[in-house]
Every structure is written in structure tokens, then in C-alpha cells.
Design goal:
The structure holds two protein chains of two kinds. Chain A is of the alpha/beta class. Chain A has helices at residues 27-35, 56-69, 82-90, and strands at 2-7, 13-22, 43-47, 51-54, 74-80, 98-101. Chain A has one domain (2-101): Transcription Regulator spoIIAA, CATH 3.30.750.24. In chain A, 31% of the residues lie in helices and 35% in strands. In chain A, strands 1, 2, 3, 4, 5 and 6 form a six-stranded mixed sheet that branches. Chain B has three domains: 8-134, Response regulator (Rossmann fold), CATH 3.40.50; 162-389, PPM-type phosphatase domain (Phosphatase 2c, domain 1, 4-Layer Sandwich); 399-566, Histidine kinase-like ATPase, C-terminal domain (Heat Shock Protein 90, 2-Layer Sandwich), CATH 3.30.565.10. Chain B starts with 7 loop residues before the first strand and ends in an 8-residue tail after the last strand. Classes of the chains: A alpha/beta, B alpha+beta.
């Protein structure tokens, strides 16, 4: 598991890529990926292209990101594979986040 | 560690001159020394003084160093007390036998003071490291024991609060691991005072104590509100609101809740974040109910939607709820218990008795494969049964509860908004339950109250035709029409009055419901219990069975039911 975050030159768009398993073990890394930046970010992209696994703690972490980002910011979860997308579907997280498949 | 105590060194040497030299050398390094001249003395001193490091001459009278080393190593157990052999022997075999006897190193004579000092220093570091590791290991063991002890106690409390309710009922089969609460799973079931039951299956985020903690308020709210006669939507909303308030962000509870209505052969269902709830029909079809909502605890009350799906469920049909956490469904190596697999199995298997044993087998297989409970499945099967099969389980009233309200009357009037938004039944039940002996007739009273109030609102005020409910489509139409008319209600009221009087045999509860509607021709009501195929219209005949009398007055917009109850003989269940 590795988490890489990238901030746009303008400082208002952040992309967070999650590789491998996204579960409780990723908690610290995921938090750090967005925590180090101040709150000028308006748009977050969580890239799941390389995410193989997702559990309910991961869903919880996305809620924490949403809380950190504030109601003004947009969070898009992109490039979900079929299994990951299915989990978002069952949990109905598509009602809270913009979620798109690969 | 701030200051390490002075290290003790045991010197075992039969040669007096050598002994003096080494003793001085070691003392000069700042260590405390003890001196033995043979193996026996060495063992004695070891037991008495507990030295940290031992310098041991190989060849000595009475007992040599090899034997003493072996015995000492047996005595030290888990501790690390390095033994450094002092030897004039130089051949490889002798040196190897020093180590084989349990020695950790050797020094060849003649001694170099620098080497002795350096070796003792090196072993001192190892002794300290070993002690640190040992202390940490013991601490971990101690904490782990403590944690297990705490979990045991916590589980007892959980079991008392989140008890299994009516999961033992004959129409329920379930699978729940004994420590499931620490996997975040909760399974609750309770009979409704009006008959029927509500089953709740929840799966909290994560594992361990954080996952278990939310189960307590959920169970408490669930059992409390079901017993008070609240509807499933209210119960779901209350649980959501409570969890939303107490759980930190990122923690939530996926849940399926089913409300079983035996008399109407209908179920109401809510699924937020769990796998499809499956309904196996008598015709062999399997009907899935997808999760339509976010899990409980995420949304604040004003955004939360507790709207349930309703559908028919005939006697003999079964509904299946699961939580194997969305986690395990997903894990690619672990397909044996996938939902799709189970749905397909349900489709081809028409012997309902086999389904549960199939699940048990799958669970056992998966357990054997992983040698652990990683995919702990909580599973429950509920069968629709005929209302007559369910015996009313009356509990005896404790003598201590016998004080209470016995002779009283009350009246409660509701206007438009309250009629639309408020369910008066829990409030009414709350009051009638103040008559101690009447509590065991909770079900009957609730049923009479519900029927009279529903009739007053639906037929009296809203003018709905119960014939509509005779078909499955009609049900939907009925509810749509009901909502529409409720929203347009104006200038209406519904008055409920209760009067209770005791008599020698027990007591009498008079329930009177008056609506401001147009009324109806009450002489046209057929008081015979309708055929089982008819879904509705059985309200009033059912009342006549429960009540001593039921009378309509005026234009039919006043209904009065007299419910008479008899005291039960002591220690004798009805």
C-alpha cells in the first residue's frame, strides 16, 4: 500500500493516488496526504486506479477527508475498478461523493 | 532506564593467585564481585547473590566449570546470565565444549586486563538489552491478559444490554459468533406490542472495542422503542440520530432492518450499506432488496431518510439478512461465501430446511480454510408464519409492581398537523401500561388502539377505501392516496379517550375514538372474520374477537371498544 498526493501549481487542486489495499493500515498515510496542506484546496481527486481493495474503515477515512475539506470543496473519487465501485454502490457513498469508474 | 544498578560479577577460580588478579581487574571496572573456588560454591553463590555475569574456570576440583555451567543454565530459566569460561586449554575441542556446556564465550589464559574489561562491557550491554526485551514482553503479555479480561467483562455487559430479544422464536434461525460484538456485528429482534416483530442486523466500522461500543445505545433504543410501540421508521431515525451524535466522523453502522407483520403478511424493510436482503418466495423466485441508503450514523437527522420498502410476504416465505461486512465479499481469494453465490443457491434450492444448514456448512468450510473467524458471517433467516401460530408469551407481573393507576380516565385530541406527523399509540400504551396487571395484555391493547385509531384516521378522516388493499398494487395506491390526503387535511380532529376501572375479576378498559369525518354505514360491516385471502377489512372482526363489545355511534364516527381483562392465578401462566 502506498499513498501519493500531488498539489497543483495553483494550490487549489489536490490529487491523492491510492495503491494496493485501502484499509485501516492506510489511516496514517492517508491522513498525512491531505493534512499537511492548508485549506486552500477547492477540489480533491482521489484516484483509485491502482486500488485493489477497500474496506469500511477506508469509507470512514473518506468521510474524514470530507470533513477536513469542508462543505465548499468538491471531492471526486475516480478510476474505480468494478469491485471498488460495487462497494461504493452498496454503501451508497455515491450519495455523498462524485464517484466514477475506470 | 536512568541509573542501572551496579552489575554483580561472580568469579569462579580455584587458583588463588589468578583469583586475586581477576578480582582486582573486575573491581577496578566498578563492578561488585563474588568469589567461588569450585563448582558447588559457584552454584551456591549464584542462587544467593544472583550475579549478572559469571566468569568460570573450566578445570576445578570437586565440580568443574562445565558441570557448574550446565546446572546454572538450568537455574536461570528465561533470564540471560552470560557465562564466560576462563581456560588454559587451547585446543578447539575444549573450547567448543565450553560453549556446549552453556558458556557464552571464553577467555584464554594468560588474561589480558583490556580484553576482560571489554568482554564484560560487551556482555553488560547484552544483559541490559535482554532485560529490556524481557520487560517489554512481560508488559505485552500482562496487557494482553488485561485486555482479554476487560473484553470478557465488556461482553457480559453487551450481552445484557444487546440481548438476543426474541431471536429464539420458532420462525427465526440465526448464526452469530459469540464474540461477534467485537467484530462490530449486532443482531437484535423484538416482538412488537401489536404482534409481529422487528429484526435489526447491524455491522459497525472496524473491529474491537470501538466497533462494539456503538452496539449499546443501538440495542437500548431498539428494545425501548419497539416495546413502546413505535414504528420502524421512527426507530431507524432515532438510532441514526443517536449514532450521528456519539460516533466520531468516519465511524458508522451498516444495517438492515425488517418489520414483520403477521396479520397482513407484509414486511417493511430498510437497508443502508449492507448486502442485499433476499426474499425467497413460495413460487421459487428470489427477490433482492438493495441497500438504498447511506449507513446509520453518517447523515444528520434533517438529511436522513428512513423510508422503508414494503412488500407482501406470504406464510412460508423467508427473508434472509446478512453481514459479512462488505469487506469479505470483495476479497478476491475468498469467494466461497459471496452473496451472488448464495442468491443463486437460493434460486435452485426449494427446500427451505436445507438453506440454513448450507450456510452453516459454508461457514465451517471457510473457518477450516482460514483457521480463524476472519469472515465471521452474521446471518438470520425469518419465516413468515400465520398469526395463530405465535403464542402470546405472557409474563407474570412481579408483586413489587402491583401499585399503580387503576381507576382513571383521560382524553387526547389531535388536530391536523399532529394527525399528520405524530403516532399517538406509544403515548397511549405508555399510559395504559401504568395499570400493572394490564401489562401482560400489552399486545391486545396495542392492537385495539391501533385498529381504532387507524380506522378513525384512514376511513373516518381521510375517506380511504380499505377494499383498495385487496391487491398488491392497491396497497401502494392506498398509501399514496393516504399521504396526499394527510397533507391536505384541514379543520379536522381526532379525539381518543381512555377510561380504566378495576373490578373483582380484573378490570375494564374503555377506548373511545371520535373523528370529525363524515362517518360511514356501520351496519354494513361484516363482522365475520374474512377469508385468509383477503388482506384487509379484517380490522373490525379482529376487534370483536378481542373486545367484550365494540359499538359505533352517531354517523359511525364514534367507535367505542370495551376491553375486559381477568387477573391471572399466581404462578400460573395463561
Amino acid at each position: 500500500m502506498s499513498i501519493v498526493s500531488h498539489l497543483s501549481a495553483s494550490g487549489d487542486v489536490m490529487k491523492i493516488g491510492i495503491q494496493g489495499r485501502f484499509d485501516f493500515g492506510s489511516h496514517q498515510d492517508f491522513r498525512e496526504s491531505y493534512d499537511k496542506n492548508d485549506s486552500s484546496v477547492k477540489e480533491y481527486y482521489v484516484d483509485m486506479a491502482k486500488t485493489t481493495y477497500l474496506d469500511s474503515s477506508a469509507l470512514g477515512m473518506l468521510l474524514l477527508l470530507r470533513d477536513h475539506a469542508g462543505s465548499e470543496a468538491i471531492i471526486k473519487i475516480i478510476n474505480c475498478n468494478e469491485d471498488v465501485f460495487k462497494i461504493f454502490e452498496i454503501s451508497n457513498f455515491d450519495q455523498m461523493f462524485e464517484i466514477s469508474a475506470a | 532506564m536512568s541509573e542501572t544498578p551496579q552489575l554483580k560479577v561472580l568469579i569462579t577460580e580455584d587458583n588463588i593467585a589468578d583469583c586475586l588478579i581477576i578480582n582486582k581487574l573486575v573491581k577496578d571496572q566498578g563492578y561488585q564481585t563474588f568469589i567461588a573456588h569450585n563448582g558447588f560454591e559457584a552454584i551456591d553463590l549464584f542462587v544467593k547473590e544472583k550475579p549478572d555475569i559469571i566468569l568460570m574456570d573450566a578445570l576445578m576440583p570437586k565440580m568443574d566449570g562445565f558441570e557448574a555451567a550446565k546446572r546454572i543454565k538450568l537455574l536461570v530459566g528465561d533470564d540471560f546470565v552470560p557465562i564466560i569460561f576462563l581456560t588454559s586449554l587451547n585446543d578447539d575441542i575444549s573450547l567448543v565444549s565450553c560453549l556446549e556446556a552453556g558458556g557464552d564465550d571464553f577467555l584464554s589464559k594468560p588474561y589480558s586486563s583490556i580484553v576482560i574489561a571489554a568482554k564484560i562491557q560487551a556482555f553488560k550491554r547484552m544483559v541490559i538489552l535482554h532485560r529490556t526485551v524481557q520487560t517489554q514482553r512481560d508488559e505485552i503479555t500482562r496487557r494482553n491478559e488485561h485486555l482479554l479480561q476487560e473484553q470478557k467483562i465488556a461482553k457480559k455487559v453487551f450481552d445484557n444490554v444487546a440481548h438476543l430479544g426474541c431471536l429464539g422464536a420458532s420462525n427465526i434461525k440465526h448464526l452469530l459468533s459469540p464474540m461477534s460484538v467485537f467484530n462490530g456485528d449486532v443482531l437484535l429482534a423484538s416482538r412488537k406490542p401489536s404482534g409481529g416483530m422487528i429484526v435489526f442486523l447491524g455491522d459497525f466500522t472496524g473491529h474491537g472495542l470501538p466497533a462494539a461500543i456503538g452496539a449499546m445505545p443501538v440495542a437500548e433504543i431498539f428494545y425501548d422503542l419497539v416495546a413502546k410501540g413505535f414504528g420502524i421508521e421512527k426507530i431507524i431515525s432515532e438510532i441514526n440520530q443517536k449514532l450521528n451524535t456519539i460516533l466520531p466522523i468516519g465511524f458508522f453502522c451498516c444495517a438492515s432492518i425488517v418489520d414483520i407483520n403477521y396479520s397482513w403478511e407484509r414486511i417493511k424493510l430498510w437497508n443502508g450499506g449492507l448486502l442485499d436482503v433476499l426474499l425467497k418466495k413460495n413460487n421459487g423466485n428470489v427477490h433482492p432488496f438493495k441497500s438504498l441508503y447511506l449507513p446509520l450514523g453518517i447523515l444528520p437527522a434533517e438529511e436522513f431518510n428512513a423510508e422503508c420498502i414494503e412488500c407482501d410476504m406470504k406464510v412460508g416465505e423467508r427473508v434472509y439478512l446478512f453481514s459479512d461486512g462488505i469487506v469479505d465479499l470483495k476479497d478476491s481469494e475468498d469467494k466461497e461465501f459471496s452473496l451472488n453465490g448464495f442468491a443463486e443457491y437460493l434460486l435452485i434450492n426449494n427446500d427451505p430446511e436445507e438453506v440454513f444448514s448450507h450456510i452453516l456448512e459454508q461457514e465451517k468450510l471457510s473457518f477450516e480454510r482460514h483457521m480463524s473467524n476472519i469472515d465471521d458471517v452474521t446471518f438470520v433467516e425469518i419465516q413468515m408464519i400465520s398469526e395463530d401460530v405465535i403464542s402470546n408469551q405472557h409474563e407474570l407481573v412481579k408483586n413489587s409492581d402491583l401499585r399503580g393507576a387503576r381507576d382513571w380516565s383521560m382524553s387526547f385530541e389531535m388536530f391536523n398537523q399532529t394527525i399528520r406527523d405524530f403516532n399517538p399509540i406509544p403515548l397511549m400504551l405508555h399510559i395504559t401500561m401504568e395499570v400493572p396487571e394490564l401489562r401482560v395484555f400489552n399486545n391486545d391493547v396495542c392492537m385495539v388502539l391501533s385498529e381504532l385509531i387507524t380506522n378513525g384516521i384512514d376511513h373516518g378522516l381521510l375517506g380511504l377505501d380499505s377494499q383498495l388493499k385487496n391487491s398488491a398494487d392497491g396497497f401502494q395506491q392506498y398509501y399514496n392516496l393516504r399521504n396526499e390526503r394527510l397533507n391536505n387535511l384541514s379543520g379536522e380532529s381526532l379525539n381518543i379517550s381512555l377510561r380504566h376501572l378495576p373490578d373483582a375479576a380484573g378490570g375494564m378498559l374503555v377506548i373511545r375514538v371520535v373523528d370529525t369525518g363524515e362517518g360511514f354505514d356501520f351496519n354494513a360491516i361484516d363482522l365475520d372474520i374474512p377469508k385468509a385471502s383477503q388482506m384487509s377489512g379484517r380490522g373490525i372482526p379482529l376487534l370483536t374477537r378481542l373486545c367484550e363489545s365494540i359499538v359505533y355511534e352517531g354517523n359511525g364516527n364514534t367507535a367505542e371498544a370495551v376491553y375486559r381483562w381477568k387477573k391471572m392465578k399466581d404462578n400460573n401462566l395463561l
